[in-house]
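Continuing the series of single-chain predictions for the mutant panel. This is the parent chain; the variants come on the following pages.
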Amino acid sequence: MVPAAAVFTGPDNRLLYTNNAFTRLFGSRQEGLPAREAFFDTDAYRFLSVLESVRSTGRARQVVGRRRTDPDAGEQAQHFVYTCTPVTTVEGPGVLALAMDTTTESADGRRYEALVKAIAHMVWVKHADGTIEETVPGWEQLTGTSRPSGRLDSVYLHVHPRDRKGLKADWEGGATPDASGVIQSDYRLRAADGTFRHVTTRAVPVDPGEPETDWIAATVDVEDSWNRQLRDRLLVKVASASGESLPEAFAEVVQVIVPELADYCVILLLSYDDWPPPDHAEVTARRVAAASRPGLPAPPALRGQSLPVTGELRDLLIRHVPRTFPLAPAGPVPPGLVPAVTERWLTVAKATSMTLIPLTVDDIALGYAVTVTSGDTPTPGTSEVSLLREVLHQAQRPIRKVLDLQQARRIALGLQRAHLTEPPSVPGATLAARYQPAGSDSEIGGDWYDAFTLPDDTLVLDIGDVAGHDLTAATAMTQMRSMLRALAYAGGPDATPAETLARLDETAEGLATAAFATAVHATLHRRVDGTWRFTWSNAGHPPPLVIPANGDAHHLDAQADLPLCVLPGPGRTDHTHVLHPGDTLLLYTDGLVETPSSSLDTGLSRLATEATLCRDQPLPDLLRVLQGLSDQRDDTAMIALRIAPAPAPAPAGNSSPE
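Parent structure:
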């Protein structure tokens, strides 16, 4: 008897084809219509639900059905069994529905056997006494071994070790059937080539409701559809990685790979930007991200983990070809492929295989991934390695984004460092400056400092911050710093800091240099008594800090004017303070004192306290210690001036007799 067949395609399960047997069993259906329109019967909802499930999940479904052909015919009805299976049609992914009328045939009859042959890889009968038999052969074809006999233990030996417990619970623990009376088990079965394939077994009781009954189970190989689902899921996850640095991006990637595709994964990045490097170039690979599945030792800490790239590893990276190395559990690891700390971890974890996969972006090798199997996990085959390569290739998108950010950051830092020159030597005082980029690779910042002398030896100090954390901010910073230096030099010693900042405000507004900036512009004059007159104007910037030679550090809390590029025109204010021998003046940007977890006042107070404790340290050391107050979320700039201490009085001496 020919099974009834229908083919559906597209997201709306459009009916593409039916055969004559299908028309005889279910009536004429108009091809070309969506399934919900073609199958308008009141009892078709179950079939439509199964059809949609198969289309969305890619997994075959087998259902026993009952259909009244004539509502006025009492209990007369048709009984049938149907399966829906994913297929590929000429118009794309689709579903094949096969059905067999079983109204007048017993479950072990020839028609049923023909049906299950069409819809399942193999069919089992589990008898009430716990023994099993195979009624539709398929075991030998799939596993390459003789068909099992006796009890279920002969089947469990071929099931993946991690799936045996769940399968035993389903078959022997009395799992609860679904609404249709079916128990479904998904597990991995060892195939003839030694790899494991995903299969689905659906079991139906012969006498529902009876405690001692036979079960009929159909097993379908779903490896292809499972791989498609896994592939799609992993590719979506890895493409959405959002790390702002390469270590952060790869940390998300390894979490995708483990435990779905490997028991352990570690990413190593190369120290060389161009690839391949010259033969004489020294190249190292450094661990930046790692993850291991539950039950295995935690990955070693990511500190100081690198190795030279030579020999076999160098050749593998140049050829861009993955390679799998079988390992003896707790045995030696091939040398020169992973850092020593990883070798020790592989031994402790009893690794059974190690696969090296080059990481490339635009044909440039960034590094390589090492995936590991351990214990009873099988060595990855060709398809598994191919999927690993595809997942890592898909990571190119977030990685390229990070690389672009890093390139912009390098350019911006280059601009900043080109302008943040060493402070000049000044008689009667010492100067020191420090610039620290933000900890995030995506943050660039627009902080700057400056120090120079005018022709009359007046010392000029500047500190400033342009709003923003990108290349635009860095560019605006260089322009603002250069303009302020030029205006101060052109104005000479007669121009007050307030007048110079006012001119800068007008110039920046007219040239549209920046959208928002803060700054302190100051002049310092050395006086004959050894003191220095410090005059400054503050455009919305954190206040200067004075660290006296004796006494507690304190901020010069004169009222700050509006920031730059906000409202040019209103006058700006000068402030004056006298610095004594041994005093230290510190100008800094807000990255040193502002954190999301505390107020600005708290940050200012913390800075003053720490500066008091460290005031006797040399200026470079003082700035290094104060840098530790920053949470690294923002870049910071500091410049400090220390007035030379007063000379100690000469000791009184005795006159020598003539």
